[in-house]
């Protein structure tokens, strides 16, 4: 398939080898740009970080992404910036590069290009560069050599002394060139619809095609499992799947809304959900991973579905011109099996807005605090009236083959006093709801024990004088 994009300031029209050619392979093998490194090939280490520029009106939005799991077709109509593009017209280093030199932020140098590109994205988006924001931006860049202190110092220097760079000087030219580029649309084996109506037609005609939104899971099918995907339908350009519509009672979230887009929307409404999203992955992952993809993939350890189930979310599924709605909890049938028909896709998620008297808490348990897959995640939505549990919804991920409600535990608490005695009596009932397995992330016994402790944690936090139980809670501090 042919795509047109800007590589730095150079307009390129290229024929890709396959629908699943990655941006990293395209750069290193096709463009001979070797500054972008391959480390993990699964979007974890950040050595392959590049920056994509995309038109938003007459402005350009920049986002760091992992080139190793991003398919090259998604470059169409965008600007791709690599570490080679940062050299200034007079040959000098870009300010973020110079700051890395001044702060001694590089040793062996293998991870450095990715770190520089993450800082460059912050720099271009004119971030203020406080400690938490910088830590979030760099959480997806691993470095064995420096201990991170000098890297964080480099970020502080560069962002505090921000000045216009060559990208500011070339902005008008870049905007004009991006407006001139027309999207390729479809080619053999690769489809890039621009509207949901077009997506519905294409998917109905090609129901065996693989839908790809952010590629944070599908990319690994290619890089780790070496799958050959004959047909790919890219969702990143479907504009109306990226809409967030707010009514008096609900948020309607398009399935292709990224977690980066969703985070500031969730923060004032459900700080705990926002904190889960902040820890869901790196900035590079959140910039492309979508709420609909997290659901449609059906992983039992996806962090979004337990929170959404506890909050009583519903799905709108579309097949051709036909739409149907169902509670999210009913979408998951068994491991790897969802209630989704051939040619049917998740169009949007309907999420009720906060209701008076209800409180929401969510807790992610993982080996690393940032950018790690959950061992389990508990989400609790509780309504207490007069010291009694009037209603509640509890959902866990990682405790069963699907994200699942704890219906027996809910029944054991509903109508009971919100008291330690009620919680102690309810904890054993979790064994009726879940029979977890042991795996590399946690044993079955650990999961069962921690699930009960999270219920107790929720009780303590929602009880008068219970206080805060978090060692750190950046979501509420930064976003609440």
Write a structural description.
- The structure is a single chain.
- The protein has helices spanning 23-30, 95-102, 112-124, 131-138, 149-160, 166-169, 171-180, 196-205, 218-223, 259-266, 271-278, 283-286, 291-296, 304-310, 328-331, 407-413, 420-426, 430-433, 444-462, 474-479, and strands spanning 2-7, 10-15, 49-56, 59-66, 79-81, 190-191, 210-212, 232-234, 244-246, 250-254, 314-319, 322-327, 332-334, 337-338, 344-352, 358-365, 376-385, 388-397, 404-405.
- It is built from 20 helices and 19 strands.
- The strands form five sheets. A five-stranded mixed sheet has the order 2-1-5-3-4. Strands 9-10-15-11-12 form a five-stranded antiparallel sheet. A four-stranded antiparallel sheet has the order 16-17-18-19.
- The protein folds into three domains: 2-180, Ubiquitin-like (UB roll); 190-352, 2-Layer Sandwich (Uridine Diphospho-n-acetylenolpyruvylglucosamine Reductase, domain 3); 358-479, CO dehydrogenase flavoprotein, C-terminal domain (Enolase-like, domain 1, 2-Layer Sandwich), CATH 3.30.390.50.
- It is α+β, with helices and mostly antiparallel strands.
- Mean pLDDT is 92; it is low at 473-480.
- It is globular.
- It comes from Dongia rigui.
- Residues 183-356 form the FAD-binding PCMH-type domain.
- Keywords: FAD, Flavoprotein, Iron, Metal-binding, Oxidoreductase.
- InterPro entries: 2Fe-2S-bd (IPR002888), 2Fe-2S-bd_dom_sf (IPR036884), 2Fe-2S_ferredoxin-like_sf (IPR036010), 2Fe2S_fd_BS (IPR006058), Ald_Oxase/xanthine_DH-like (IPR016208), Beta-grasp_dom_sf (IPR012675), CO_DH_flav_C (IPR005107), CO_DH_flav_C_dom_sf (IPR036683).
- Pfam families: CO_deh_flav_C, FAD_binding_5, Fer2_2.
């Amino acid at each position: 398939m042919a795509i047109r994009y800007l590589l730095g300031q150079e307009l390129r029209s290229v024929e890709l080898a396959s629908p699943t050619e990655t941006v990293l392979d395209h750069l290193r093998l096709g463009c001979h740009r070797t500054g972008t490194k391959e480390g993990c090939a699964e979007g974890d280490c950040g050595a392959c970080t590049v920056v994509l520029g995309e038109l938003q009106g007459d402005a350009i939005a920049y986002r760091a992404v992992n080139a190793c799991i991003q398919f090259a077709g998604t470059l169409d109509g965008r600007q791709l910036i690599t570490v080679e593009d940062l050299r200034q017209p007079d040959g000098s280093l870009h300010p973020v590069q110079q700051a890395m030199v001044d702060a001694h932020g590089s040793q062996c140098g293998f991870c450095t290009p990715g770190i520089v590109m993450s800082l460059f994205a912050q720099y271009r988006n004119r971030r203020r560069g406080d400690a938490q924001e910088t830590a979030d931006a760099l959480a997806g860049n691993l470095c064995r050599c420096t201990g991170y202190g000098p890297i964080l110092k480099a970020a502080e220097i560069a962002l505090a002394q921000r000045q216009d760079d060559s990208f500011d000087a070339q902005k008008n030219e870049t905007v004009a060139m991006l407006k001139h580029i027309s999207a390729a649309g479809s080619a053999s084996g690769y489809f890039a619809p621009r509207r949901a109506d077009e997506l519905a037609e294409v998917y109905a005609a090609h129901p065996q095609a693989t839908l790809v939104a952010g590629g944070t899971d599908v990319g690994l099918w290619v890089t780790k499992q070496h799958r050959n995907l004959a047909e790919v339908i890219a969702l990143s350009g479907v504009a109306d799947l990226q809409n967030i519509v707010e009514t008096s009672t609900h948020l309607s979230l398009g399935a292709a809304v990224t977690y980066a887009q969703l985070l500031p929307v969730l923060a004032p409404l459900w700080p705990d959900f926002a904190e889960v999203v902040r820890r869901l992955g790196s900035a590079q992952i959140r910039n492309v991973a979508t709420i609909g993809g997290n659901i449609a993939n059906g992983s039992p350890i996806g962090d979004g579905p337990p929170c959404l189930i506890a909050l009583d979310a519903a799905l709108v599924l579309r097949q051709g011109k036909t739409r149907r709605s169902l509670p999210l909890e009913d979408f998951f049938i068994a491991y790897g099996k969802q209630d989704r028909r051939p040619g049917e896709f998740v169009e949007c998620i309907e999420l009720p807005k906060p209701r008076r008297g209800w409180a929401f808490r969510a807790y992610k348990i993982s080996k690393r605090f940032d950018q790690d897959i959950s061992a389990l995640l508990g989400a609790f939505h509780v309504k207490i009236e007069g010291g009694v549990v009037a209603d509640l919804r509890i959902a866990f991920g990682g405790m069963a083959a699907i994200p699942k409600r704890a219906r027996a535990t809910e029944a054991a608490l509903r109508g009971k006093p919100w008291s330690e005695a009620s919680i102690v009596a309810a904890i054993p009932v979790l064994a009726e709801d879940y029979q977890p397995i042991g795996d590399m992330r946690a044993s079955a016994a650990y999961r069962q024990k921690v699930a009960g402790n999270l219920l107790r944690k929720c009780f303590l936090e929602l009880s008068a004088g219970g206080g805060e139980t978090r060692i750190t809670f950046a979501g509420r501090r930064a976003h609440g």
